[in-house]
Amino acid sequence: MDQTIEDLKIAVRFTEDNDPALIGRLYNLGRKLSHRYERTPRDEEDIAESIRQAARAVSECYTILGKCLIGLALSFAVRYNAHDDVQDLEQAVQVRRQAVKYITEGDSCRPGLVNDLGVDLGKLYERKWRVEDIEEAIRYSSEATRLARNDADRAGMLSNLGTNLIRKHERMDSDPRPAMKATREALRLTDHNHHDPTRALNMSTLGVEHRLRYQQKGNEQDLNEAVRLGSRALEAIQRDHPYRTTILNNLGHTLILQYEATGRREALDQAIQGAEEVLDLTAANHPCRPWALSELGSYLSHRYEGTGAPRDIDEAIRLTGKAVELTPESDPKRPMWLDYQAGCLSDRYKTVGTASPQDIDRAIELTREALRLAGDPHPLRATLLSNLGIRLGLRYDKTPATLAGPDDLDEAIHSLRESLRLTRKKHTIMAGVLNNLGNQLGHQYQRTGEPRYLDEAIQMLRDALDLTGPRHKDRAMWLQNLGSRLCDRFRRTAERPSLEEGILTAQQSVEATPPDDAELGPRLGNLGNAFEALYERTGDLEDLDKAIQAARRSLEVTPKAHANRGKCLNNLSGKLGRRFDHSEQERDIEEAMRLVHEGLQLAQGDSPDNPLRASLLSTLAAELSGRYKAKGRRGDIEEAIRNMQEAVLLTPTRHPDRAARSNILGNMLLSQYEATTNSSGLDGACRSYLEAWNSLNAIPFHRVAAASRLVRLLPIQGRVEEATRVAKEAIRLLPTVSTRALTLEDRQWTLSTYSGMAADACSLLLEADEPEEALRYLEDGRAVILSERMNDRNDVSELKEQDAKLARQYERLRDEVSSPLPETDEDDVKMLQMRRRRRPEAVAELDSCIEKIRGRKGWSHFLCALTVAEMEQCAAEGTIVVINVTFRRSDAILVSSSGIVARQLPDLFQSEAVQALGKGRKGIFRDTESEAEIPRDVPFLEWLWSDCVKGIVEEIEENTHRPLPQGLTPRVWWIGVGTAGVFPFHAARSASGGDTMSHFISSYTPTIKALSYSKSQVSRRDTSPGEEASILVVTMPTTPGQRPLSADRERDEINKACRGAYRPASLECPTASEVLESIPGADVVHFACHGSSDSKNPSESHLLLVKEGETGRVVDRLDISSIARLPTLGRAWIAYLSACSTAEVKAKSLVDEGLHISSAFQVSGFPHVIGTLWSVADDVSVRVAGLFYQALVANGDGTGEHTSRDVAAALHTAVIKVRKEQWGNLLTLAAAFKDPVLNQYIDEGLLKDLFAKTISFFNIIAHPSSALSIDMRILEGLQHQLWGAEQHRRN
């Protein structure tokens, strides 16, 4: 070679300029110099001289210009391959474009020329990322394959075409099939030579094409095929062949994808092994050395994420840093190497945390630099933007709370949104971007408390998981992220399905995490937190034990040097503290305190503003406060207050936890005030509660908790107006807290947090002498669910006449929103999730539709609260009496057609009322509990008369200006609020004479709106003149698991009383479905059965029917929801519920909601519902029912038609008559018992029980000066005669 070059130089030197041989000698000299440059240690003078001689040949040439241009282009290309200078590549492309003009299709040089031009344009595209370059490259590569002279040439050209098509696919997400077709054809043409290195390279290229299609479509078969082809290509190539590094690189990328998709550690280890070989094969001064360094560093970083081995991440940072160092700024690969190094630094920061803050700062700096160098457009831009968002979010998340500003987080979200826009069609990339954006939106929610960010975060995280296969490496992490956000939603909205899904998701995340994975600890911690949230809702200690178990495992698997160690200590400590609060086990509080102090010691080296420190201090304060409550040590509460004050100061003002911690601090200060009566404690408590209340972005329940404290504490300080404002604003917040998007059970829980709020607001407003405003807030703040159910039955027939389309839209949305969501749906989980996600949208659409209706002329009051005039109209037939009993005062609000007045009840205090509540006695009752808490003993009823009802009687009689016809007793509708919600006002009596029943015919209603609704049902009844009314009697003589009832006898009594007035129908021992099918055709429905009022979940209250089960008859529940949704077809008139506790709410925190069986029948359209406030004796039930229908028929016109007054009067008459009958029956039985002959027919135990119950009943209803009182004393004397003084005293 050297001699040939010297000979050519001599020949050129002695050749005349006009000699035709000069051009050929110049061309050959240039080619030989470039060949020597490629094959021997590079002498830069060789390539420079080659370019000079080739350029001279071009300038001198007139006949073979095209060939000379080819030679010049080749020299530029050779120098580009050596130095990677893009100017040489651009020169090569420019010269070859000129050559194409001179080399026609018939020329044998053209196929090679256009092929080389396609190759160079492909390389230039990777440097400049100009779309026109890759399009031109594909055009010339396609021409080359068409012009190829033989199969060998065609195979190589097809390979080049496939490579260019891959480049286009990566940029434009185009169809990968043309690239795969070209590469497969290249493989077919070399099928005869399996040892051809080009065949191995083509096989590797085809594997890359399958990998790219997997990234686009997500088909795992493509990924497996990519691994297979890459592995075969590697087997077919010699270790010392130049193609081996390319094949190893291609296979490494594919193996990393397989690792991410399946979590197979073997794939990652194989990729690392291949990258190490590439680095060994790549010389230190080779242009690809930075690539080899970065690839190995990236793979080691992947392994570090799984194992947490420090040596891997340290080596990864060293390798990627070296790659950046070796790569000039002009190199198009430098942005990629910068991003690789930034990724390694941020991975180390995740573990080391604030111990190495420079890592994340440097990572962000490098990512910004990568974006600057990449420019726009650039194929890496989407990835770089996503990574910048991740790293900014990471720095924000671990920045000390008081220093964390919105800039990092806002920029992170902006970067990720832009990345999502650029990657919307790319399957695997898009899933990662969605997850990352969901994470940052979750942080934004935690910063601002705005629920829109949380909702969007959850949707993004769901979408990411939908795009991810079940074995994806990151699936466990993404499940963890979704679970955390779902638990956040539960904490904000009390939406229990979200919590249950969050727990399931967290469990799946833990199950998908290998035992040696560094992320197992945090995922166990999230699972523990989810179980703790469930415990807060249920109070079930088993849930708390699960939380502790998960938190303990989390601590065990987390290395002591790990950044999450302090969080793990805090989590376990807090849960143990909660268990101590529940069970007061000393070992729990001792371990809890030890763990939290260990966490604080770990945090000492961090910034004082570290957000973990605030959490640890808050946990410590809660545990000290819990110990103070259990042990009474004053030092504990003082230390708790100091720690919590610091925790509050360290929590950013807009952070959702700020309000929660302010509330807890307020509780601690209040405890201190109650113990010391030091006013400074009260001042501090009010300040803390006010801060929580004024945190507008806080979780609503935290604000409501603060408000409930403030309305009671501020008046103590004389700040009544401020307390009133807080109470009113809190009630106005109610619709956003108890949204219809929640399940019924969740709504009940949210409403329980408002327990007493409306009553307190009423008291404060009455103190300001605003009775109408007080009544309005009582109506707005109580019976929320009941009111909505009544609204759902609203008649829109008039609207249909005016705007049928709008009416249909309202009915469709109303039906969708009011239909209950099933708790579980094993057959179609996806459909259930879709329905749950759809519910908030439907609620918003319904609200918008209602506003449209209100915008129509004449419909502005549609579904609005009653006006004062409408309330007064409801009392046209009597007086509505609202009794409001609170901590501050007690009042009666009297509503009549002449106005609204308030009367203070100074002797009726809440504490005395609670103390006065008595308990019922065991007996044969129609409920499912042996003993129910009911206020009906004599001292209570006498107290109720003297301190409450007596004054109301005087007020009504004194101010009634509309005299009733002679013989008619005035009507009163009672509404008890709060504690007074269980008061039996109709049974109040005096020891010295006077009782409610002698003055009023009493009825009860949950709210005035409910009364208005019932009255509207009367006017909507659809009955034809002369048509016989019908009565349906449902009887349950026997019920599985319950005492038998005299239901058949009750049915016979009813039929006897109603003969000729009502068309009878009966159902004995029916199913709930049979009853629901039969009710719509009846005017009157009567139930003689057992009833159950659920003490925890009022919506589960029900009447007990029966159905066939797998092992025989079982109870079938006719529950509130089924009754309320019942279509009554306009015939409904009376529902008589001869069962226990059908008008009772046993869940004390929901007593104001009026959710009971009677109100459910009221909602379904029955204007009159007769229920019971307590347990009722079976015999008495039978007799009262018979007497009621006798009186009803006697009061009517003989056709079953009656006025509303007739119904109330009939019940009033029946109860009074039963009083008188009990006495005579017992005298007869007692005489028979004393007779020696008849004694054998009398059950002594039953007789004793009847005496006890009758005397108890007389105790309630008999006036001391009345004949009934004398009768009662006779019975007491007879009881003493029969069984002695001891028995008399026990009864």
Automatic annotation (TrEMBL):
Pfam families: CHAT, TPR_10. Residues 956-1222 form the CHAT domain. PANTHER family: FUNGAL LIPASE-LIKE DOMAIN-CONTAINING PROTEIN (PTHR19959:SF119), KINESIN LIGHT CHAIN (PTHR19959). This is CHAT domain-containing protein. It comes from Triangularia verruculosa.
